[in-house]
UniProtKB/TrEMBL annotation:
The keyword Phosphoprotein is assigned to this record: no
Name this polypeptide is given: MFS transporter
Listed InterPro entries: MFS, MFS_trans_sf, Proton-linked_MCT
Annotated TM spans: 7-24, 44-62, 74-92, 98-120, 132-152, 164-183, 214-236, 248-267, 274-293, 299-319, 339-361, 367-387
UniProt keyword annotation of Transmembrane helix present: yes
Keywords: Membrane, Transmembrane, Transmembrane helix
Amino acid sequence: MPTERGFVAALGLSQLVSWGTLYYSFPLIGEAMINDMGWSRTDIYGAATLGLLAAALAAYPIGSLIDRGHGRKLMGGATIAASLALVAWSNIQTTTALYAVIITLGILQAALSYEPAFAVTVRQFGAQQSRSAITSITLWAGFSSTLFVPLLQFMLDGWGWRGALLALALINTVIAAPLYLWAIRPAKVENSRLPKVVSSERMSIRPVLCNPRFYLLSICFCMYMALFSGFTYHIYPLLIALASDTQSVVFAIALIGPAQVAARMLMLLFKKITIVRLGLSAGITFPLAIMMLKVPTTAFTIASACILYGAANGIFTIVRGMAVPELLSHQNYGRINGIMLVPMSLTRAAAPWIIAQYWTLSGSPDGTIHLMLVFAMLIPIMFAAAISANRTR
């Protein structure tokens, strides 16, 4: 079995590939399909919405499976299945086939996103020792957009969207699947090394569900998911509409990854800073990033927006990953996180479609910016309310 450093490197690299091939690829592939197939933006992002809805339904069962020690089979198998789905996507001819493929990918994404990776990490190292491991894993995965956005643009220019999907399937199979299977301990090994984690599965989660902090944090994370999903799916076409310069847009989006990594590296240097302070500081930065899109558009302003967003997202990802063990309960990470993920995933699913629909009806990107600004402002407000509510109680 790998050492702790080996586990972190393997899971981090596999997460980098999973996010790059299954999530960050969609906006670029979607735009290429709109131009090639003649389908509407609503058609494309309607498929994305249904895929995210499917991910929401799968969140709690996946968390429960990881709590029972099936993380290795789950993440390894889902990676292989996702590669097959990407191959199927490259051969579609109708919107019905597109919807079927994206719904399938949505379910598989639920097993390959940060949440199951965090749950596996907490299970293997325990709640107290997992913070630095989670931070390091996200350092690796933070380069996903930096690597895959320009790489995918290169593949689209040379091979078209069908060839690009086949290349993504190959990358996913060759790199991510073996790393998941190698790094994550089998259930029987976990049982022998971490008996306290296993015994916690039988403990009740009712006290957490009676805590008002649970619900206020859930609302906060729903707003974060709405912003994250809307920004991820629409930032490319939004910046193209604002700047009309593909090279500047691709360069700006590629800066999100380094900004995430830089913010997380600062976290490693200041390990004693609390999750509360991290959440508030990152939350305040989100609306500042979106407001940069409202000033006169230049290469500098769109790059600044992406850098601020990337830094805030890099920190808030850690906050979200550690919220359950540090702010709610050390026990039953997978189940508690799975319950929170249901409304979060529903919000993440609805946001891209709502934004696309509003953009189509208004014919202007300004409404998209205003809507994302509302989401961004609610993040620090609800996070502060969650902390205050618990102290009062």
